[in-house]
Amino acid sequence: MTAEAPTAPAVSHGRLIPVTVHFDDLDALGLLHNARYPLKVEQAWTELWQEYGIHFEGDWAAAGDACNAVKELRISYEAPVTRTGVYAVHLWLERLGTTGLTYGFRFCSRDGAVTYARGERVLVRLDSETLRPAPWSEWFRAAGRELLRPEE
Question: pTM, whole model, 2 decimals?
Fold first, then answer.
């Protein structure tokens, strides 16, 4: 008998993506190491974009919108993660520009109720030959609009 994976709880905007904290993600005090939070967020984004068919397979010219670089990362740690297990990363877009975007994230409990860390990351789409900013494709922009946080 196989059990189906539980579905992610609903959030008001963006997506909640499950991530696993393993023993080797913990520091000497048994806490999730501060450098692992951005890594877990990156893993969640990779999984989400793969659902949209966006992925990198070693060829920057063929990568299209996956050819991008981090311009800025801000993170605030709010509560320690003290155990291994399944958590979640809540992901959304704050801004979707012509060549860049800003996404927000929360590293949280599996149900999204407890926030352990939050932050923003700025990405710039790059031309694979010049490594200069390049526009996102219309297809990517359409997918990104689905993840935009509604204005309050």
Answer: 0.88
